[in-house]
Amino acid sequence: MCLIFEGRNCRKRALTREEREARRDMADYSVSMIPVRDCRIRVMRAGSGSPLLFLHGGGGAGTWLPFMARLAETFDVIVPEHPGFGESETPPWLDTVSDLANFYLDFLKQLDLDGVHLVGQSLGGWIAAELAVRNTSRLASLTLASAAGIHVKDIPQVDTFLSSDEQRIRDLFHDQKLADAVLARALRPEVEDVALRNRMTTAKLVWQPRSHDPHLQKWLHRIDVPTLLIWGEHDRLFPKDYAFAYQRLIPGSKVVIIPDCGHLPEVEKADVFAAELESFIGAMRIAA
Amino acid sequence: MKMFNFHLMPYRHADLDAIEKNGSAWVTFSNRHYDPKKGAELYHDYLDQMEFADQLGFDGVCLNEHHQTAYGMMPIPGVLAGALARSVKRAKLAVLGRALPLLNNPLMIAEEYAILDNLTRGRVIAGFVRGIGAEYHAMGINPAYSQERYAEAHDLIVRAWTEPGPFPYVGKHYQFKYVNPWPRPYQTPHPPIWIPSQGSGSTIRWAARMRYTYCQTLSPIAAVARFFQMYRDEAEKAGYQASPDQLAWSNTIYVAETDEKAVREARPHLEALMNYFLKMPTEMLLPPGYTDAASMKRVRAAKVTGKPQSIEDVIKNGVVIVGSPNTVREKLAEYQDLAGFNTSLTKTQFGTMPNDMTRANMTAIAEEILPHFRDRLPRSVRREAAE
After folding, report:
1. Do B293 and A208 touch (CB under 8 A)?
2. Secondary structure of chain B: what % helix, strand, coil (to 5)?
3. Among candidates A118, A120, A2, which has minimal Cα distance to A55?
4. CB contact, 8 Å: A16 with chain B?
């Protein structure tokens, strides 16, 4: 994979169609370490257009994925790695998801991003929701994908902290062939350090109350930007009931359930996921 | 050497096949397997055994704390310590220990130990532990804060015992406008603090610096010797020489007329302990953040959980001592000299062992072993004394 390292002030221009396709094939994206106050984080970025900030889940930011490449044809896709994950630093103040929500408000301000399409998956969805109840002034839209953050009663959910390494990965996918492929990559010793670090930070953020903040649901009504709730039909971590619960709490929000899909729609159904996002944002623009 | 009778109070009627099927006797092993009629009998048997230990001349009796498991029925050890505080007349009463980070109000531990210390007129030993990883699943406490909460709770409890109240306490995890527990502890400045651990380097270093007695849990004697040497080295770095009284080895002893008989009798009960009651998946034992990444990787690589162990394995590695009186005396003396401890925390009941066998074992230990060790010190100490 070709990596282009560039500073965050690098000037961007719109790409021609040929350039876009070449980019997609080469999967070129920039990687930089960006300091936000006292914490340096790794940020992957590609494309141009309106900014689309993707907040990753508990598994970490990992690498540039096909859905990011596709969205980079239309958007300026920005994928930070959260403090405490992967190659980003662990600041002493990192305790809760609220800390990360405030951190990303600082991040938006520092990068002077406006009209941002904020997309958060799982843990990242929780961070995005916490951010949006605080301040939507820099947001154009919000997308929560298989998001944590609230609790829905009487919905069975797998306990990822008691699952074996293999079962944990299997539970993420509906299509077990995809799980097989991911397992082959995920259980290599060279990725163990990052995996352990990501799990430790995730545990710190979500252990108790498990994967939610009982106070968040009180304030979700404050979210005043168009909101898309996108879930895999067979999500075992946060089943699709969570999408409808979020819908009841966020005024005017729209639910999309992707069939034959588990907890990671952006991976398991990358094209459907990207297409839904494009169509949601496109429709929103027409409405505006 | 001092010898304490250490009880885990297992639910010894647990269906071992059901534990096997569940993969563990902890957290997810349904409490529908607990029969209160049988459980009540066990509590009384076990408390009677503790009183018997006192009568037999054991130097102390030990309880501990584990949650949501058939491995031990003492989630609130203070209740049982309270039951023993008046009936154990002479021996020390040690709770090894209370798991500090599991409480959202650790002042209650300061209060509980202080009551026990008053009840026993100063015979209480206050154990402080973090609790094993499984407790963090069971009790909904974030393992990532285990070490921070432990350190904070420890400081709060010791201050509550030693500084005149009321005073305010404001920490990251605990805040109190008034710290002013009644009663104050009976002992001055407070009950002895003992620190049981599986051998964490940072715990050993801290215990040595604080001059707290360090208790090594179930481990091969070679590892025990290494950990105890680490403690002595850390004490030296802190500017003093550690006494063997600061080192306690937690073990299991079973005595019968001959080695063969002892092994034959102890086998099913010891193997039930090792292979059923103790068994848990790595994810349960080590939730993320409970220990640092390096230790986590070490344990995962060693795959410590899951290997079935025979009684021969644990005898050979010096995790337990099983045999005739002569064998047990020889081994215990050898291990004391090797590791340099002066307290033996001995499980006389283990796994599925029934009451009559346990009492016979306790009697044999009291008659055949205790008298030979009453005044025995580790060899290194004897040598120094002679010089």
Report:
1. no
2. 50, 15, 35
3. A120
4. no
The reply to whether A203 touches chain B by the CB within 8 Å rule is yes
CB of A51 within 8 A of CB of A75?
Answer: yes
Q: What is the 3-state secondary structure (H, E, C) of A66-81?
A: HHHHHHCCCCEEEEEC
Return all residues near A53 (Cβ < 8 A) that are at least 6 apart: A78, A79, A80, A104, A108, A113, A116, A117, A118, A119
| Angle, vertex CA A126, rays to CA A123 and CA A129, nearest 5 | 155
Q: Specify the CATH superfamily of domain A3-287.
A: Alpha/Beta hydrolase fold, catalytic domain (3.40.50.1820)
Q: How many structural domains is chain B composed of?
A: 1
CA atoms within 13 A on the CB side of B184: 13
pTM above 0.80?
yes
Range of the domain at B248: 2-386
Helix axes of B201-210 and B221-237: crossing angle, nearest 10 degrees: 50
HEC secondary structure over A193-247 = HHHHHHHHHHHHHHCCCCCECCCHHHCHHHCCCCEEEEEECCCCCCCCHHHHHHH
Q: State the CATH number of the domain containing residue B216.
A: 3.20.20.30
Searching chain A, which residue's CA lies closest to the CA of residue B301? A189
**Bridge partners (DSSP) listed for residue A212:** A149
Substitution target in A162, A197, A211, A213 with the highest count of B β-carbons within 10 Å is A162
Amino acid at B195: I
- What is the Cα–Cα distance from B89 to B193, expressed in whole angstroms? 21
**Which tokens is B30 given?**
């349904």
How far apart CA B171 and CA B153 sit, in angstroms, is 9
Q: What is the residue-level pLDDT of chain A in tens, covering all 288 positions?
A: 333 333 333 334 455 555 555 555 445 899 999 999 999 999 999 999 999 999 999 999 999 999 999 999 999 999 999 999 999 999 999 999 999 999 999 999 999 999 999 999 999 999 999 999 999 999 999 999 999 999 999 999 999 999 998 999 999 999 999 999 989 887 777 788 899 999 999 999 999 999 999 999 999 999 999 999 999 999 999 999 999 999 999 999 999 999 999 999 999 999 999 999 999 999 988 887
> B293: which chain A residues are within 8 Å (Cβ-Cβ)?
193, 196-197, 200
List own/partner pairs for A269-274 with CB under 8 A and 24 or more apart.
A269/A232, A270/A65, A270/A66, A270/A67, A270/A70, A271/A67, A271/A70, A273/A67, A273/A145, A273/A230, A274/A67, A274/A70, A274/A71
Q: How does strand B175-179 pair with strand B167-170?
A: antiparallel
Residues β-bridged to residue A39: A36
Alpha helix ranges (H) inside chain B: 16-22, 36-56, 77-85, 107-119, 133-139, 146-162, 201-210, 221-237, 259-272, 282-285, 293-302, 311-316, 325-339, 355-364, 370-373, 379-386
The answer to whether the Cβ–Cβ distance between B288 and A203 falls below 8 Å is: yes
